[in-house]
Amino acid sequence: MKKLALHWQILIGMVAGVIFALTLTQFSWGASFIGDWVKPFGTIFINALKLIAVPLILASLIKGISDLKDISKLSKMGLRTIATYIITTVIAVSIGLVVVNVVKPGASISEKTRTELIESYQGDASSKIADAAKQKGTGPLQPLIDLVPSNIFSAASDNRKMLQVIFFAFFFGIGLILIPEEKSKAVKEFFDGFNDVILKLIDIIMLAAPYGVFALLAALIVEAPSTDLFTALGMYALSVVIGLTCMIGIYVLIVWFFTKKTPKFFLNGISPAQLLAFSTSSSAATLPVTMERVEEHLGVEEEVASFVLPIGATINMDGTSLYQAVAAVFIAQAFGMDLTLGAQLGIIATATLASMGSAAVPGAGMVMLVIVLGQAGIPEAGLALIFAVDRPLDMCRTVVNVTGDAAVSMVVAKSVDKLGEPHIKNWDDNYKG
Predict the structure, then answer these.
(1) Is the pTM of this model over 0.70?
(2) Residue 176 above 70 pLDDT?
(3) Which residues lie across from 419 on neighbouring strands?
């Protein structure tokens, strides 16, 4: 018998957790049983995600930056690629913040449910709120000071200092590029292997996802059984989908404006890669198809596609960063936290940088969300609120990631005069831009 795909296992775990909790709540001992014997497994799962966050950032970012080879030889194509990826990521996070602040999915949660949530995670929430209050009295350049760590090991031991870890990873990666290749080779090989190990650990952790979701959902039902929580969850999912749809529209407009290729041309050319991205939830697994579609059907020369797309699969995670922004604000709304403009600007910075270190595999976005929540002072336990719908949203945001890679490759190719006509045979005027 064929084994069920992981996303189906997660959905089954979610439903089973809800049914299990609703059944046991009919008994007087049900709630305490779930709290003592089921919830701990959800906590272990969350801890495993937090455990892998720092190594994932270090491995992915150092490997991605060092793969750029030589800073002095980076042509205008390389600089434009990195700059364009950063700009589109900032746009994606900003769209996510606008949508979630307009829709306010967490606002539909009643005060009673919100109080129950805060009480359930009192230790986690109160410390975050206290830290946020403490930061209000700091100077205007304090965020810049906080960006540079005085001790990388201290920074790596605290999820709230993840920006410092990201800074160190960038700094270390640049140092690897600047030293002679014969001296950096061993270090690069170490981080290549280290990155492979971390990706395998993510695979192992995600195998436990159905059980983790079961435990998290069961505990959530017991601790906050109000139906308005599920209504808010639906509004949250809708907010993410609206944001992702808007981002695809932005890509279409960017391609149209910079390359003069029509939306139909672009979407027809990249649609098979989008469908594969949706089914695999992995922009890395989709990369071969993305390269074929971009080169053969969108007219990007191989020289550009082979440079821009692999980098994009590593650092261009616009869909992931948009989802992180929506999720962070939604969880804050659910806990009754009022995020200031400064806090939301911090989310833009953290989500942009964290998405660059997000591995192009299923589930990595959830690990990166731990970083965004910790940096913004939002209780990481709020992950329990959104994990139930994460898998289908992961499929959707991977489509955006792949679409963004293709759009940027076309823009960069046009800027260096490497964008021609599609190379496929028998293409007709329906594909012409």
Answers:
(1) no
(2) yes
(3) 300
